[in-house]
Amino acid sequence: MRVIDTSSRMLGIFALVIIITGSLSYGAQHSSSGKNSEPSQQNAVDDLNSRTGPYFDLAASKNVTALLGKTTYLNCRVKNLGNKTSVALQVSWVRHRDIHLLTIGRYTYTSDQRFRAIHNVHSDDWTLQIKFPQLRDSGIYECQVSTTPHMSHFVHLNVVEPTTEILGGPDLYIDHGSTINLTCIVLNSPEPPAYIFWNHNDAIISYDSGRGGVSVVTEKGETTTSFLLVQYATPSDSGQYTCNPSNAQPKSITVHVLNGEYPAAMQHGGQAKQPRLYSLLLCLCLLLY
Ligand SMILES: *[C@@H]1O[C@H](CO)[C@@H](O)[C@H](O)[C@H]1NC(C)=O
Ligand SMILES: *[C@@H]1O[C@H](CO)[C@@H](O)[C@H](O)[C@H]1NC(C)=O
Ligand SMILES: *[C@@H]1O[C@H](CO)[C@@H](O)[C@H](O)[C@H]1NC(C)=O
């Protein structure tokens, strides 16, 4: 009985010594440059884990904004995957909305043909390809590594559809005799629209009509811009103008050609700002002198 008692006491003292020396060396490591001191056992284990365990490269596994219908890629970069010896770790993609398993490793698991797993040997990238992305594909996708417990990284996919904008809307006030200049912008279109029609009060504007002085300039690119110019505006040019891109929603603006009268809405326009600037300068001058 006595022998066990002393040995357990010795064990207790021994443990205490370990704890004290442990915390001493921990303190030393953190107060000194840390070069000469022995790291504590726990630190050593942590270091080993972080060096050998897999981890996500977040900078290469980012959220994605995709254009409706245009093939997109969600990437998951896992570092140190092959380092956990015996068990082969798998990287999977799971759609969060319905916990649907899409890919396992290089194998595409889902029957939805739009999804595909892409992985090149010796690469850390596990990519999910999505063809013809739809708005309903927006949401969270989970990149999962089959460690125990699982490691997860969440990638948000945002699918955006083309939008149409007309600058200066919804109402535009133009002086009689000046040029109506309407600017229509098509954003988020995977391909530039094949054509953009302009309508005036439901009739397609014809550039070679008797009206004359009508022209359209369209600049195609990542954002497509179409300018409609109507020279020598008369009150009959008033009304609704609609920009109709072939692959995006139409957008309208109401043009008011003025006959000398100025409606209240004008006061909020560009001209109202100038007197205010002058009074500001005046105040500044008064302050200076
Ligand atoms: C991804 O998007 C979500 C939701 O908008 C956001 O909470 C998260 O911080 C984003 N992650 C990164 C890495 O930007
Ligand atoms: C484990 O990872 C380290 C650091 O990335 C590397 O130098 C080493 O070769 C890897 N070992 C194996 C067995 O893959
Ligand atoms: C029409 O307006 C747009 C946008 O304000 C401008 O860039 C363009 O130069 C204008 N075109 C003409 C002919 O005034």
From TrEMBL:
GO terms for cellular component: neuron projection membrane. One of its GO terms (biological process) is synapse organization. Gene3D superfamilies: Immunoglobulins. Residues 54-146, 162-254 form the Ig-like domain. SUPFAM superfamilies: Immunoglobulin (SSF48726). Pfam families: Ig_3, V-set. It comes from the Eukaryota. InterPro entries: Ig-like_dom, Ig-like_dom_sf, Ig-like_fold, Ig_sub, Ig_sub2, Ig_V-set, Zig-8. This is Ntm_1 protein. It comes from Fopius arisanus.
